[in-house]
Amino acid sequence: MIKVAILGASGYTAVEAIKILLRHPEAKIVAVTSRQEGSPPISTVHPSLVGRLELPLEDLSPEEVGTRADCVFSCLPHCASAELIPQVLAAGAKVIDFSADYRLDDAATYLEWYGHEHPDTGRLGTTVYGLPELFRKQISGATLVANPGCYATSAIVPLAPLVKSGLFETEDIIIDSKSGVSGAGRSPKLMTHFPECNESMSAYNVGRHRHTPEIEQMIRRHAGARPQVIFTPQLAPMDRGILSTIYIKPKGKVAEEDVMAILRQAYTGERFIRIVDHLPATKDTVDTNFCDVTARVVSGRVLLISCLDNLVKGAAGAAVQNFNCVFGLPESLGLL
Ligand SMILES: NC(=O)c1ccc[n+]([C@@H]2O[C@H](COP(=O)([O-])OP(=O)(O)OC[C@H]3O[C@@H](n4cnc5c(N)ncnc54)[C@H](OP(=O)(O)O)[C@@H]3O)[C@@H](O)[C@H]2O)c1
Questions:
Q1: Which of 129, 143, 171, 214 is the most exposed place for a label (fewest CB within 10 A)?
Q2: Is the CB of 75 under 6 A from ligand 1?
Q3: pLDDT tens-digit profile of 307-322?
């Protein structure tokens, strides 16, 4: 059994990871951390875990976590994560980081988008980006995996094979994404307060959402050219799920079948990427590790439509997929 600890276990992505790990035949959860006073049982903050996981929420030191566990899932906000991870790694555990801290290659881009110096600049550019469908070889055996952003996954999965083909412009990519409210985490905020978001939709962080540089970095890596991306995230009145509609210009004339063929070829044999003929809906992927993708050609422009569950393929499911890859287990173990 591989011993796993979860940092920030009171949050949304953490409880999702716990539920997946509880049915994983090779993983055993040995510690769950939180800054809650008095080490309450985890089921007091996640009642869905009553009778399923009896561990207390402990405010452990990163060294203690890294000693107790073989692998640590860091479900902390950015910055808080990179402040603890170096000590967890030094204690000998492998880490899968849910936050954005190790996704970007360079400190200047991190400073520009996150507004503060990175706490562990030395590791930037050396960590592996946790999208097994694109970086499986590098993830295998890695000590630190940067789990991708939820919006970023919904954009990179369909875009990567297209930009790699060289048949598409990279200067004018428009990504229009809608997310369920759990994407903002469990801490109360005005925007995610029920009367504000129920029966309502709104755009936010227009032109400055922090997944933009992550998406650009991955397009650059696959296309070899500097892309220009307009990414507009929107809050949708649902608990979970992301639907992204992506507009990309072909360099010449392209048929829908050709675009679908590129996608199908890129993801042949990939259990969790489904290239579908129909227009996918978030409900098709809720509670699963699937990312569904299709393409259309409209007025000479290619539209890619993708959806996934932000808490599963966008976070905890991807993390377990990475965990399986890191430890040489069958990649779909524990995953639906
Ligand atoms: N939600 C999503 O769909 C999603 C998808 C992909 C990636 N992510 C990323 O995954 C991470 C966790 O997201 P989430 O949605 O699970 O967040 P969340 O529900 O807000 O949970 C984060 C937990 O971290 C702990 N925490 C908060 N600030 C901390 C600090 N300064 N130091 C130590 N612990 C702190 C809190 O627990 P205590 O107060 O109990 O200590 C909190 O419950 C974030 O980096 C997020 O960007 C989220």
A1: 171
A2: yes
A3: 999 999 999 999 999 9
72 Cβ below 6 A of ligand 1: no
Element spanning 16, H or E:
helix 12-22
Cβ within 8 Å of residue 96, ≥6 positions away: 71, 72, 73, 74, 130, 145, 147, 319, 322, 323, 326
Q: How far is the CA of 164 from the centre of ligand 1 (A)?
A: 33
Q: Is-above-0.85 flag for pTM? A: yes
Give how far the C-alpha of residue 93 lies from the chain's centroid of Cα atoms, to the nearest Å: 21
Between CA 191 and CA 189 the distance in angstroms is 6
- Quick one: fold of 150-310? Dihydrodipicolinate Reductase; domain 2 (3.30.360)
User: pLDDT tens digit string along 198-207?
Assistant: 999 999 999 9
Residues labelled as active-site residues: 150
pLDDT at 258 over 90: yes
Ligand 1 within 6 A of CB of 82: no
The response to whether residue 289 sits with its C-beta less than 6 Å from ligand 1 reads no
Spans of all domains in the chain:
2-148+314-326, 150-310
State the Cα–Cα distance between residues 174 and 158, nearest whole angstrom.
Answer: 13
Residue 237 burial (CB count, 10 A) = 14
Burial of residue 125 (CB within 10 Å: 0-12, 13-18, 19+) is exposed
The architecture of the domain spanning 2-148+314-326 is 3-Layer(aba) Sandwich (3.40)
Atom of ligand 1 nearest to the CA of 186: 19
Nearest to 161 by CA among 264, 302, 285, 243: 264
Q: Distances from the Cα of 317 to the Cαs of 31, 246, 286, in angstroms?
A: 19, 23, 11
The CA 88 to ligand 1 mean position distance, Å, reads 17
What's the 184 CA to ligand 1 centre distance in angstroms?
9
